[in-house]
Amino acid sequence: MVASQRSPRRILITGGAGFIGSNFVHHWCKQYPGDRVVVLDALTYAGNQASLADLEDLETFRFVQGDIGDRALIDTLLPEENIDTIAHFAAESHVDRSILGPDAFIQTNIVGTFTLLEAFRQHWLKRDKPGRDRFLHVSTDEVYGSLNADDPPFTETTPYAPNSPYSASKASSDHLARAYFHTYDLPTLITNCSNNYGPYHFPEKLIPLMCINILLGKPLPVYGDGQNIRDWLYVGDHCQALDVVIHQGLPGQTYNIGGNNEVKNIDLVYMLCDLMDELAPDLPIRPARELITFVKDRPGHDRRYAIDATKISTELGWNPQETVAGGLRRTIEWYLAHPDWWQPLLSEEYQKYYQQMYQGV
Ligand code: NAD
Ligand code: TYD
């Protein structure tokens, strides 16, 4: 949307210190410099204020450390900042961690989302239900379950069939966001996207983990037979899609967002290795493919995700711009240029998690 054609918004971005959230905060501050941008983030292990460091001096920007489940805090924050738009990213987001310990997923993803919805509803009622208000609930394609090789991609009407504690908790929060529109007319919008990648991605997820392990000369742990398929969406494309949904999406609707980039995990890792050989030619272990190690599969590992993004393309005119080859190159270049961002994340806590997860690999 062209900034000059709109009146400013006062947006609360939850989880804005996380991977997609911080990319979205940068996108929004750049696109709409006249808007008030308030970030609410609990700074869990996945939250990193350094991802927002360059915005801290903006007068229009405010960072609040806090939990989306803290009703008193949100009841204060919404009227204090006169919030009219919420972009809700805050979540526990890693499938493997949800298998190791699901409690936090239930608390943040379900109870936290409910708390935020209910607080926003009260705030919206007190202001006489402004029609322009929006509550964007950012969710995942994982709520639809797993596809076989020949199945058609997920559409917005694919039945929910979540398989992990993570996806089950996200599915539950989607239902709450949907119910708040149908029951109370609260202008909620839901987006279900595929696997994102790009700058500011915490090292535990596939792409940053592989990039960083190549740089450190460590094994590249590929689960199972490496034949699982994911659709890869460059985070900048995703932020643009969310912008379009907030401005043009119809309240009560769901929009699937995908990258049109279905790749087998092992092929993705090959691409990363080859790009790293090209972009970081001085690393001691070359070719990087030598580091690939097949490890025990993830329990209940979904075989394939694929998104049919026809609805957002035809109704809102959004289409992904980045190819997986181009996006991976940009991502690797970013990690090579920003060791100051990712090195501090390899903390003692992270090493403990890594040890528990990969058991000596
Ligand atoms: P992330 O784990 O990188 O970041 C989550 C952020 O939420 C962190 O900054 C964390 O500190 C914050 N947070 C966690 N619990 C909180 C709480 N109780 N209160 C306030 N803040 C809290 O996650 P991400 O990858 O950026 O994902 C953002 C959203 O997008 C999530 O809702 C996720 O389910 C969804 N999503 C992600 C992907 C992906 O590929 N990363 C794909 C589909 C959907
Ligand atoms: P991940 O980045 O955790 O995203 P999600 O599970 O939400 O799709 O994993 C992407 C794919 O990569 C998934 O099929 C699991 C696989 N994977 C590995 O093979 N090795 C790893 O070390 C990780 C983290 C993931």
Describe this structure in words.
By secondary structure, the chain is of the alpha/beta class. It has a domain at 8-201 and 231-263 and 304-324: NAD(P)-binding Rossmann-like Domain (Rossmann fold), CATH 3.40.50.720. It has 12 helices and 12 strands. The protein has a 7-stranded parallel beta sheet, sandwiched between helices. Strands 7-9-11 form a 3-stranded mixed beta sheet. Strands 8-12 form a two-stranded parallel ribbon. Strand 1, helix 1 and strand 2 (36-41) form a beta-alpha-beta unit. The structure holds nicotinamide-adenine-dinucleotide and thymidine-5'-diphosphate.
| CATH architecture assignment name of the domain at 8-201 and 231-263 and 304-324 | 3-Layer(aba) Sandwich
- Using the alpha-carbon principal axes, give the shape: globular
Number of DSSP-assigned strands: 12
Q: Tell me the name of the CATH class of the domain at 8-201 and 231-263 and 304-324.
A: Alpha Beta
Q: Uncertain regions: pLDDT < 50 for 5+ in a row?
A: none
- How far is it from the N-terminal to the C-terminal residue, by CA? 47 Å
The hetero compounds bound to this protein are: nicotinamide-adenine-dinucleotide, thymidine-5'-diphosphate
- Spatial arrangement of strands, main beta sheet: 3-2-1-4-5-6-10
The total count of helices amounts to: 12
Largest beta-sheet characterization: 7 strands, parallel
Measured as a percent range, the helix fraction is 40-55%
Instruction: Return the structural class.
Output: alpha/beta
The value of Rg in angstroms is: 20 Å
Under CATH, the homologous superfamily of the domain at 8-201 and 231-263 and 304-324 reads NAD(P)-binding Rossmann-like Domain
Order of helices and strands: EHEEHEHHEHEEHEEHEEHEHHHH
CATH topology of the domain at 8-201 and 231-263 and 304-324: Rossmann fold
Provide mean pLDDT, rounded. 97
Strand fraction equals 15-25%
